[in-house]
């Protein structure tokens, strides 16, 4: 859990995207282009600097989420993510892990 808390795969997503949008991936890393790893302290500073709410979304399955997660994260499995994006206001910054 300490390793998981130490680094987050953070992707700031503008909520103006439609639910059908797919993100291009870097073939070397498999991560979405533009994704950045950030320690939790940086995310906390970013939230304060932006003056916007950050929501950490764990995209793993429910069983994995229950075993080990970041405090305060919510679970939306990746295969369900597109239909839930509309539930967040445009002034919310989403962080995926």
Provide structural commentary.
The chain is α/β, with parallel strands linked by helices and 97 residues long. It has a domain at 38-97: 3-Layer(aba) Sandwich (Oxidized Rhodanese, domain 1), CATH 3.40.250. 30% of the residues lie in helices and 20% in strands. It has four helices and five strands. The protein has a three-stranded parallel beta sheet, with helices on one face. A two-stranded antiparallel sheet has the order 1-2. The radius of gyration is 13 Å and the shape is globular. The two termini are 13 Å apart. Mean pLDDT is 75; it is low at 1-21.
What's the arrangement of secondary structure elements?
Elements: H1 2-6, E1 8-10, E2 36-38, H2 40-50, E3 53-58, H3 62-67, E4 74-75, H4 78-84, E5 92-96
Parallel strand pairs: 3-4, 3-5
Antiparallel strand pairs: 1-2
Descriptors:
single chain, 97 residues, alpha/beta, Oxidized Rhodanese, domain 1, 3-stranded parallel beta sheet, 4 helices, globular
């Amino acid at each position: 859990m300490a390793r998981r808390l130490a680094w987050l795969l953070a992707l700031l997503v503008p909520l103006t995207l439609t639910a059908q949008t797919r993100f291009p991936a870097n073939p070397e890393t498999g991560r979405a282009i533009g994704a950045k790893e950030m320690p939790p302290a940086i995310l906390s500073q970013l939230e304060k600097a932006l003056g916007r709410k950050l929501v950490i979304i764990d995209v793993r399955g429910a069983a994995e989420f229950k075993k080990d997660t970041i405090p305060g994260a919510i679970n939306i499995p990746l295969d369900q993510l597109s239909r839930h994006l509309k539930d967040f206001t445009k002034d919310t910054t989403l962080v995926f892990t």
